[in-house]
Amino acid sequence: MAFLDRLGKTLTETAKTVSKKSEELVEQTKLNLAIGNEEDKIKKLCEELGSQIYKEYKNGTSFGIQFDERCNFIKQCELNIEDLKNKIQGLKTASTASNESPTAAPASTSTPESTDSTDYTIKPQ
């Protein structure tokens, strides 16, 4: 009978421990989700802030050399995008022309490679 009493006591204690650990795990998960939500808010606000700074930069406002360098890099990226879009349009136009005229020259299929490897991440001061 003593064996069954000890077994029952052990099982009860184990169940309490498992329950307590489960509750702790649930609480940790909730806290981690809350942290993730706050980090998402920060990321969104930083993106909005960056977009606003860039809009102001395009309108002539300077925010210091560190920001101006990054804004210039964004501006160059926008110019690269525009150039690439123009090349796509040229390929479409050449393709249309070659379908209409069998003697049209083939369009170039080379793709530009970015040579700028500058790290523009903001570092804490």
Q: What brief labels describe this structure?
A:
125 residues; mainly alpha; 74% helix; 2 domains; 2 helices; elongated
Q: Could you characterize what this model shows?
A:
By secondary structure, the protein is an all-alpha fold. It has two domains: about 1-60; about 60-95. It is built from two helices and no strands. It has helices at about 1-60, 65-100. The longest helix is centred in the N-terminal third of the chain and has 57 residues, at about 1-60. It starts with a helix and ends in a 25-residue tail after the last helix.
Given the C-alpha coordinates, what overall shape results?
elongated
- Helix residue percentage: over 70%
- Helix and strand run: HH
Number of strands: 0
Radius of gyration: 31 Å
Mean pLDDT: 84
* Low confidence ranges: none
Beta-strand share of residues: under 5%
Q: Largest beta sheet, briefly? A: none
How are the SSEs ordered, and which strands pair?
Layout: H1 2-58, H2 65-100
Give a brief rundown of this model:
The chain has helices at residues 2-58, 65-100. It is an all-alpha fold.
